Amino acid sequence: MKRKFDFYIVPTPIGNISDITLRAIEVLKEVDIIACEDSRVTQKLLNHYDIKTKCISYHKYNEKERVDSLIKILNEGKTIALVSDAGTPMICDPGSILLSELKKNNINITALPGACAVTTFLSQIPRDTEEFKFIGFLPKSEKQILDLYEENKYTNMVFYESPNRILKTLKIIYSKNHNLKIAIGRELSKMFEEIIVDDILNVINHFSNTEIKGEFVCMTFAQKNQELSYLKDKIEKLKEQGFKPKEISEIISTLYEVNKNDIKEILY
User: Alpha-carbon distance 184 to 211, whole Å?
Assistant: First the structure.
């Protein structure tokens, strides 16, 4: 493998160990160092594919202190691959501090395509629009969760949740919207993968009667805005002034913080 880059961001399987690309295996074999969250987790993957590369820990508790040592390794002419325990690094995983410093030091960086829980989940969920907002892990307090949902209720809001918090989180959101449709993905790519698209109360009841295991990816479907009639006159005035539908959608969305798809329903 010819070295075009110094630093590689390498996705690893989110559940099924076979879900790794040939290029990822090649890179992990060829680099000098693998920076990983938990060497015990990463070593299982490396052993499976007979990868002998040395690992060093890089996680949220030591990322600041690791930056200088990693840059020193790179300045010595060596190469590094960054992996997380599962999925694509930098998606709800440490790495932002390191990448900022690498950019400042003009280190050549590339990212490999590969497994990610968000895209794996969304590719199985029928949606009216491609638009969604990824939140990451929700905050812990009830007020913060409610405020976040209220802020994003007119878009498809995607978030991660742990098995010990999922029921509590769903009940908090349910208290805000009894008629909400929600999609849930659990144990993605594994033997007991489960995808549910249903009313939130039915989902709550489902998980209230079963042992909850595995990490969750969730999406609250966008709530239809029933209060957009006040925008009709403004849309008509923009039409009269010769603005095209796409331009009108951009203007109204920016000025009134309304989802573009809801505006399209009025436009057409």
Answer: 15
The rounded Cα 156 to chain-centroid distance in angstroms is 13
Q: Do 186 and 193 contact (CB within 8 A), yes or no?
A: yes
Q: What is d(CA 83, CA 12) in angstroms, rounded to the nearest whole number?
A: 7
Strand pairing report for 157-161 and 216-220: antiparallel
Task: Quick: pLDDT tens for 32-60.
Answer: 999 999 999 999 999 999 999 999 999 88
Q: Is CATH 3.40.1010.10 the classification given to domain 7-115?
A: yes
Start-to-end C-alpha separation, the chain: 53
With residue 249 as reference, give the H or E element that holds it: helix 245-256
Residue in the structure block whose two tokens are 């549910």: 196
> pTM, whole model, 2 decimals?
0.80
Query: How far is the CA of 64 from the CAs of 54, 82, 101, 160, 220, in angstroms?
Result: 21, 15, 10, 25, 35
Q: With respect to CATH, is domain 118-220 assigned 3.30.950.10?
A: yes
Q: Break the chain into its structural domains and give their ranges.
A: 7-115, 118-220, 229-267
Tell me which residues of the chain have a pLDDT lower than 50: 1
- At 259, the amino acid letter reads N
The Cα 58–Cα 64 span in angstroms is: 9
